[in-house]
Structures are given as C-alpha cells and as structure tokens.
C-alpha cells in the first residue's frame, strides 16, 4: 500500500498554526517526525509499505529539522522484517542544501521523485549507484541481469542489490529487485 | 560610587571590546553608567551585545545614557533598541517613541529569541524582505536566500538549544567601507547564557587534554561540530552555516566567555582566534555576507 504524507499539512497541524510553511528548528522537526510516525503506524496494514513524503508545500527546511525528520526517519525505519520504503516528492534546490548535509553526515541515501521519474541521492558506493541505475532502467532485475549489463561479477552485484534493499532503496520480490517509487 | 563606561562613537563587534574592557573587573553589583551620548553609529552586533550586557547585570541594573544625536536616537528606536533596553537598563535621556520599522536596510529589528516559535517568526519575517535586499541590492544569487534563512535559523537556535536564557537577533544591510568597500548583510545573535564552554561542560565534553577553556570549546563547537548532545546528527547547524558562508565568501565570528573565533574570508584580516579577552557571558555571533564580487 502507498501512503501520502503532505509535510506542509503535517507542519501546520503539528504547530497548530496556519502561519508557518518553514521546517525550521529541532523541536519542530521532532514534532513533525512524531506525527509522521503516528500516521505511518495508523496506516500500516502489511509488512511492506511505501510512503511518499511530499515537500511541495514546504518553503524551506533547515539543517536541524532535516536531521530530525529525514535522517531519523530513515534510520528508524531500516527494520529487519518490516519493509518501509520512502519516496521524497516536491524537493527543490532550496530544500536540498540541508538534506544533502544530513545525508552526508549519517551516510544515508534516499529516493527522490522528480518530474521524469525517481532518482537516488545521497551517500552510495559507485557499484551500488550503477546497480540501482540498472534496476531502474530494466524495471525489474535479478543479480545476473545487472552483472551482465555492467560487466561485473554476479556475486558482487548480488551483494550490492542486497545492500540497497536492506537500506530500503530498492524493493525485492523473490530473487528480483525493483525500483522504489515507480508505482508511487 | 558609579563607574562611567564610555561607549565608543562607533559601536561594532571590535569596538564593543572597549566597553567590556572597562566593565571587566567591576564587581557584579557595581553601579555603572554606560555613556553612549557621543555614540553616532552601532552595528547590529553592537546593539544586540549592548542589550546582552544589560541582561547580564541582572538585578544590578546599569544606567544607560542615550545618544545625543537625533539621527542615532531615531535609528536605534526603529531598531527596537530602546524598547528592550528599558527592561535591561535605567535609561537616562529622552528617547523617541517606538515607531514601525520602515527602514529598508533594517531587515529585522532587534527581536527577542527564546523559543522555537520565535525562530519561525524570524525566518518568516526575513523571507518576506530578503528577496529584494539580498538578490536585488547585493546581487547575490536568489538561491542564496534560502541558505541565508537557514543560517539565520541555525544561529538563532543556538540560543534555544544552548543558552539557557533568551537573547536577541538583528539583521541589517549597510555599507562596509572600512574593510570591504562594499555593501554587506549582517546577522547578529547575542545572548548572556552559559556560553559554548558551559554548554559542553554539561555533557562532560571536556577534551582529554590539559587545555580546556573558552577557546578550546569554541574550536570544538564551531570548527569540529561538537555538541553537548551525543546524538550523531548534532552539531551540524554551525557546520551547515560554515558551508553556506564558504560559498558566498561570508564571515562568521563567535565570541564566548574570554575567546572569539572567526571563519575569515579573503576580504578580511581578522585574526581567526582571540584569547584572553575580557569575560563576557553567553555567546555573541555575527554573520557577514558581502555584496557579489563583480558588482
């Protein structure tokens, strides 16, 4: 199932004020993340869930808020059995400065939806990024497909894909992997 | 006996040290008259730090003799200085009534910061005015406005997260002819709280060396992103500010206790670290962003 969370609405609900469209300050970030977690808990009906976090109505986000919302959300939802995937929508260059900083700080990556599809941003090994691009290009791929396309060892690509899946940056179905968010 | 403290004719982050040198060594309950009658000009840092000095005196309120110059009085009034100074000092002299700040250069008059909502208000206010000033007047890429608001947010949060008491923020543009010959936009954020060393001390962040003083605490916080909070994501606010300033040739200076540290761009010759300054509680931060180079 796919959840859609409009961060602008969450922000206004959380702060009980319609004046604010900026995600600033650590207490605000903490409150917004708590609200997101509540929404996710209420909406969860299976072991696999995809959530679109929508920045469209957020004017700006600062470093502290990005750390509280993005980094802590990504870190908290890397779970061994429950599969929680996130796609971030509506991010612009203004949001990116703060988000890039916290991704680098924590060694994280995330899936961003742009006009022409999804992209992977953040901290990744070169092999992981190439493997992800290959899965995106194919739509669905097993390690042998990726190894064949990239001229790499199947075992290496299997490890790269498994690592991406554990970070919830691609989905897995049986032996095959699919991009997160293509169906969002 | 009342000690008279002479306020320099031009009050900025450098000349404010002259005030602190005169105050240093006075007992906490000493009677003090800050004589600003001949002061003609003050930077945002000068005004915010002066309020902080008044705040730091607690019950032993100092007297503050206001400037003689009508022009200076008028500007300080528009900057909200007297409105807040009335709580921190016994004002001596006639001050103009508070009027709405209609000054285009005054992006944000002195504004108290004590809680998260205050930062939202400050950032919201600055976003309304920043487009014209930063983009049009200073010729800085409009993309820089978001970074400017982030910078403002992070330095204000320093008060909320670490000071233990409220402080003030002010943002202004002016001609910085003395050092740069250009227009600049300046953010000043000052508080009289526990300071960087005091904040790190609360978490046992004392460095494993013999040297642990205000300068070491500033180096740890400002340069290495050490925070009193042990979470991995802490301390990146000032790191993000440094990254933003590096991109726009900006300057950051942070004074706390007896030391002052600065990230100094090419256009300035400030020393990167000053130690053994007169003690002043809390933290006083100044961010300076210059007009675009090729204008």
Overview of the molecule:
The complex is a heterodimer of chains A (184) and B (295). Chain A is built from seven helices and nine strands. Chain A has a five-stranded mixed sheet with strand order 1-3-5-6-7. By secondary structure, chain A is of the alpha/beta class. In chain A, helix 5 crosses helix 6, helix 5 (126-138) crosses helix 7 and helix 6 (143-150) crosses helix 7. Chain A is globular and about 55 Å long. Chain B is α/β, with parallel strands linked by helices and 295 residues long. Chain B has two domains: 1-94, 2-Layer Sandwich (Transcription Regulator spoIIAA); 104-295, Histidine kinase-like ATPase, C-terminal domain (Heat Shock Protein 90), CATH 3.30.565.10. In chain B, strand 10 (251-257) and strand 11 form a beta hairpin. In chain B, helix 5 runs antiparallel to helix 6 (144-163), helix 6 (144-163) packs antiparallel against helix 9 and helix 7 (195-201) crosses helix 8 (214-224). The relative contact order of chain B is 0.13. The mean pLDDT of chain B is 87. Chain A binds chain B through residues 15, 19-20, 22, 24-28, 59-60, 62-64, 67-68, 71-72, 93-94, 97-98, 101-102, 105-106, and chain B through 116-117, 119-120, 123-124, 127, 143, 146-147, 149-150, 153-154, 157, 160-161, 232-234, 236-237, 239-240, 243-244.
Key words describing this protein structure:
heterodimer; A: alpha/beta; Arc Repressor Mutant, subunit A; two-stranded parallel ribbon; 23% strand; B: 295 residues; alpha/beta; Transcription Regulator spoIIAA; Heat Shock Protein 90; 4-stranded parallel beta sheet; 37% helix
Q: How are the elements arranged and paired?
A:
The complex is a heterodimer of chains A (184) and B (295).
Chain A: E1 2-6, H1 7-15, E2 22-23, H2 26-43, E3 48-54, E4 60-61, H3 63-76, E5 83-89, H4 93-106, E6 109-114, E7 117-122, H5 126-138, H6 143-150, H7 154-166, E8 170-173, E9 176-179
Parallel strand pairs in A: 1-3, 2-4, 3-5, 5-6
Antiparallel strand pairs in A: 6-7, 8-9
Helix pairs in contact in A: 1-2, 2-3, 3-4, 5-6, 5-7, 6-7
Chain B: E1 2-6, E2 10-11, H1 16-23, E3 31-35, E4 41-42, H2 44-56, E5 62-65, H3 70-78, H4 81-88, E6 89-92, E7 108-113, H5 116-137, H6 144-163, E8 167-176, E9 182-191, H7 195-201, H8 214-224, H9 236-247, E10 251-257, E11 259-263, E12 273-274, E13 280-290
Parallel strand pairs in B: 1-3, 2-4, 3-5, 5-6
Antiparallel strand pairs in B: 7-8, 8-9, 9-13, 10-11, 10-13, 11-12
């Amino acid at each position: 199932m796919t959840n859609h969370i409009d961060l602008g609405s969450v922000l206004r609900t959380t702060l009980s004020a319609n004046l604010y469209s900026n995600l600033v300050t650590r207490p605000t970030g903490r409150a917004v993340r708590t609200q997101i977690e509540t929404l996710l808990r209420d909406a969860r009906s299976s072991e696999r869930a995809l959530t679109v976090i929508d920045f469209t109505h957020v004017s700006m986000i600062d470093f502290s808020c990005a750390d509280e919302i993005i980094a802590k959300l990504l870190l908290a939802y890397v779970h061994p059995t429950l599969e929680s995937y996130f796609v971030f929508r509506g991010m612009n260059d203004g949001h990116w400065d703060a988000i890039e900083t916290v991704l680098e700080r924590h060694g994280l990556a995330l899936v961003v939806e742009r006009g022409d599809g999804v992209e992977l941003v953040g901290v990744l090994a070169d092999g992981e990024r190439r493997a992800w691009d290959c899965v995106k290009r194919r739509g669905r791929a097993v390690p042998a497909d990726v190894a064949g396309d990239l001229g790499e060892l199947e075992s290496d690509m299997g490890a790269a894909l498994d690592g991406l899946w554990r970070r919830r940056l691609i989905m897995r179905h049986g032996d095959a992997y699919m991009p997160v968010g293509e169906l969002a | 006996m009342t000690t008279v403290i002479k306020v320099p004719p031009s009050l900025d982050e450098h000349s404010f040290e002259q005030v602190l040198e005169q105050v240093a060594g006075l007992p906490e309950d000493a009677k003090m008259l800050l004589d600003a009658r001949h002061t003609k000009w003050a930077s945002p840092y000068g005004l915010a730090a002066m309020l902080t000095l008044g705040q730091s005196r607690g019950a032993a309120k100092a007297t503050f003799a206001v400037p003689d110059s009508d022009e200076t009085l008028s500007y300080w009034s528009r900057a909200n200085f007297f409105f807040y100074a009335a709580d921190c000092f016994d004002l001596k002299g006639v001050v103009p009534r508070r009027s709405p700040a209609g000054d285009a250069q005054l992006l944000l008059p002195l504004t108290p910061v004590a809680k998260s909502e205050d930062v939202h208000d400050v950032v919201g206010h600055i976003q309304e005015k920043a487009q014209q000033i930063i983009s049009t007047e200073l010729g800085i890429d409009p993309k820089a406005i978001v970074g400017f608001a982030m910078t403002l947010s992070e330095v204000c949060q320093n008060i909320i997260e670490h000071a233990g008491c409220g402080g003030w923020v002010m943002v202004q543009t002016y001609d910085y002819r003395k050092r740069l010959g250009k227009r600049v936009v300046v953010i000043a954020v000052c508080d009289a709280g526990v300071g960087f060393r005091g904040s790190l001390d609360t978490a046992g962040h004392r460095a494993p060396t013999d040297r642990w003083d205000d300068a070491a605490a500033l180096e740890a916080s400002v340069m290495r992103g050490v925070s009193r909070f042990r979470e991995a994501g802490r301390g990146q606010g000032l790191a993000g500010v440094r990254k933003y300033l590096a991109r726009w040739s900006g300057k950051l200076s942070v004074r706390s206790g007896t030391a002052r540290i600065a990230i100094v761009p090419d256009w300035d010759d400030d020393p990167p670290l000053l130690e053994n300054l007169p003690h002043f509680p809390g933290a006083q931060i100044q961010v300076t962003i210059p007009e675009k180079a090729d204008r």
